[in-house]
Each structure stands twice: as structure tokens, then as C-alpha cells.
Amino acid sequence: MTEALQALLGAALYDQTQRAAALAARLDVDALPQGNLRDVAAAVQHLVRAHRPVDAVTVHGHLAEVGVQVAPTFLSSLMARHQGGNPQEYLLLHQTAARKAKLQDLLRRLHAATVAGDQAAVDLLHPQLEALVREGLHSGHHRLPFLDLTALLKETPAIPWIVEPFVALGDLTVVAAQAGVGKTWLGFDLALAVTQHRNFLHLPVRRAGPVLIFDRENGAPMIAARLKKLWGSDRPIPGLHLLHFPHAFVDDAAGRRLILQAVEEIQPALLVFDTLSKFHQAEENEAPAMTRVMSAFKEIAVQTRTGLVLFHHFGKDDGKKSAAQLTRGSSAIMDNADQAFALFRATNGLRVEQSKARQTEKMDEFIYKLIPLADTVMIGDRAEPRLALQVVDAAADTARGETERAVVEFCRKIEVAEKRPATRGEIEAFGESEHRWHRRKVGFALADAIYHGRLIKGDRTKLGQAYYTPEFQKD
């Protein structure tokens, strides 16, 4: 009975739709034993009747108002009991266990009355026993976890987005890319957006708050330089906290304790781990092992009511097409994510593709780039330009993207048919004669083909001098 009750109350604290709280309001609080569980159940019922939202903060606040002391860690432990199961099932399990205990008590009292010859007590207990049996038989017909579609269609549940549609409270978002593409820049800009309550790229920040970064990827000088370029000064960044090379493996009890201790101290809205491989000890290609690792990350997000972003690497290309296939390690990594994004180099920046969306429809892909601003910041004894991440107009890039795809496809056909790379002359002739492409347009396509497929014969530097824009020549 206790486990089902804990799971139900945990679901009520976690579920933003308030459906679990409405189910918890059906509990017979007076029948519960004295203690924290009864106090929390009573608080949930009070908030539901007062039409107030139910979560860990409001429950803790109400208990404090009525003079009941319940540790926040106890509420967190209740939320950890909720493992994504159906709250209706939790309620049924609790009711079944409660009926079993009540039945045992009635049978004991009936036996005692019969032995004592107390016919009045027997006559009083028999109807109660029959009613309890009928209730148990009736409840057996309602154990299937059907979703209440009528209520769902009337009122669509609100998704507790931190950045819409990138990461939500209790969710696990994976961002994968090749090494050196610029994941760290993206992670720092995300952290600054959430702490400062501004847009992240072109995506709205719905819930601002502190951000806690666990970094086992970058050296301290690089972290300092990149943050200063994005922040614009050496002033402290309010709300941003970074643990550098912590011993925090999620598949290790001590590591999980360290993570939870840090979250308890900082109370962040968002957790960022850079990178995934540095925070577990499992074999990345083994599905069962990585399922356990990803489940541990998900449990942290749910238990702490934070959003959690994991940066990860691509594996070897080997002709793979999709972002899920390119992601290094077992498919369990992407299977257990709520949202997943992939970054690809494009001719004018980095292309962002959403490969998985569990909360909403996938958003359209877009391109962003790192641009210099007019003002400068001191990095050591050098004045360097401030930087910002800026979304590129997707419509202006459409024709260029079609060109790039056509050139890459042409190069692959040459390689398959003639077992050799395409030459620069062949690509120029293909573009100018078949599609009447402008020479500069072909240059962008050449750049993309070299970046992604390395299918073109010749030296990149020489091609760059002839075809690359100045930003490519500097890269």
C-alpha cells in the first residue's frame, strides 16, 4: 500500500496536467496512518479543492503555512517513486491494498464477535463485509489504464517548457554532432539564455532560472574565453554555475549523490552535461547498459524537476544517412531521449535538425552561425570581438541547400560508377551546363561537398582561394 501511495503522490507533484493530483484528491486521508504521507496527501487535496496548482513548491508552501515541517528531500523522494507509470494504476493499487487491509481487519473483528457470541456486532459487521467485497469485485473492471480522452480533448495539457521546443522540465534532450563543430558554444549560449531570460537562438525561453553545467570536456582557459566572448565582460554571470571535471558518473552511487547534492544546493532550472561519454562507465555500444545510463539521467531530471541536456558525439560516417544512425553508440541513447537534435556543418553556419520529438511535432530545421559584434572584450592581453549566435534566414538558404545536395549526389554517382572521386572540372561542368548555376553558387556547393563527403579530388586550400567566401577562407 505504501509504495503505490508514494508513487501516486509523487505523480501528483510531478504531473503538470494536474490529472494525477485530481486522482490523489480521491484518497481517504482519514484512513491513512499518521505521518508525512498523510500530511502530503492532505495538502494535495486542499490545493485541488482551492483550484491551486499542485507541485513540490506549492505543497511545501501549504504545509509550512499550517505548521507542518516536511523536508524538500522527502518530496523529491516521492517524485522519484513515480517512474512514468499511470497514476490511475497507482490509485487502484493503493485502493486494492487498502481494501485488503480493511478486509483482514473486518474478518478479525467478525471472528472475535462470533467467538464472543456478540450477535449485534456480527449483524453490524456482515453488511460492511459484503459491501467491501462488492466494491472489490466492481473495481476489478477498471484496472486497464485508459486515457481520459474526453478530458484531454477539452483541455490540452500544458508542457512545462524551459526552452520551447528544445527542453522541458523533467525531460532529457540529446544534442549530437561531430567533434569540434561547436557544441560547447551552443551549450554556453543556452545557459546564458536561460539565466538571463532571453531567447535561445530564435526559440523562446519559457522558464528562466539558474543553470548548472557539468563539464568534463573543456579546459578552464577555453571555458573562460568563450564565456567572456558571449557574455561580453568579466563580470560574474548571475545564476550560472559550472562544475569542472567532477567525478560524477551516473552509473555510480557516489556520482549520483554528487550530482543530487549540487542540484540541491543550486536549485537550477536546467542541467547541462558536456559530454555524455564522460559521465558514465558503461560500454556505449551495449543497449542494456546505455538504457540504464539514460534511465539514470532521466531519473535525475524527474526527481529534481529540472530539464537536462546531454551533448554527445557522432560516430564514423560510413555512409550513414540519418542523425540517429550517425550518433555514436547504441540506439538506446536516442530511444531514451525526449528530444534529440543533430548539428551539421553548412556552408553558412551550422544546420540544426530535430531527429526526435516526444512532446510535440518536430520543428523545422534551421541554420545558425557565430557572428562577431562591434564591441570587444579582453582575452588575456588581447582585445577580441564579442560573439553571438545568430539564426540565418532559412528561406534565403533554400536554393543553396538544393545546390549542395545536388553536387554531393553527383559526386557520389561518379564515385560509385567510376570508382574515383569527381574532379573540380566535372563539378563545374555539371553545374553550369545542366543547371546553369552561377560560379559562386557552385563554390558554396564545393565547400559543402568537401566538408561532408571529401569526395572531390584536389587540395582544399586551392579550392578555397578560387571559390570560398572570406569566412570560409578564415575557417
How are the secondary structure elements laid out?
Layout: H1 2-14, H2 19-24, H3 36-49, H4 56-65, H5 72-81, H6 87-116, H7 119-139, H8 149-154, E1 161-163, E2 167-168, E3 172-177, H9 183-196, E4 211-215, H10 220-231, E5 240-244, H11 253-266, E6 270-274, H12 287-304, E7 307-313, H13 323-326, H14 332-335, E8 339-346, E9 349-357, E10 366-379, E11 382-392, H15 394-418, H16 424-434, H17 439-452, H18 460-467, H19 470-474
Parallel strand pairs: 3-7, 3-8, 4-5, 4-6, 6-7
Antiparallel strand pairs: 1-2, 8-9, 9-10, 10-11
Helix pairs in contact: 1-3, 1-5, 1-6, 3-4, 5-12, 6-7, 9-10, 15-17, 17-18
Mean pLDDT, nearest integer? 80
Total number of helical segments? 19
The proportion of residues forming helix, as a percent range, comes to 40-55%
Strand content: 15-25%
Shape: elongated
Overall radius of gyration: 29 Å
Biggest sheet, open or closed, and with what strands and sense?
Answer: 9 strands, mixed
Low-confidence stretches: 395-399, 459-475
CATH superfamily of the largest domain: P-loop containing nucleotide triphosphate hydrolases
Q: From the coordinates shown, what is the CATH architecture of the largest domain?
A: 3-Layer(aba) Sandwich
Total E-strand runs: 11
Broad structural category: alpha/beta
Compute the separation of the termini in Å.
Answer: 63 Å
CATH class call of the largest domain: Alpha Beta
What is the ordering of alpha helices and beta strands? HHHHHHHHEEEHEHEHEHEHHEEEEHHHHH
Strands ordered across the widest β-sheet: 5-4-6-7-3-8-9-10-11
Number of domains: 3
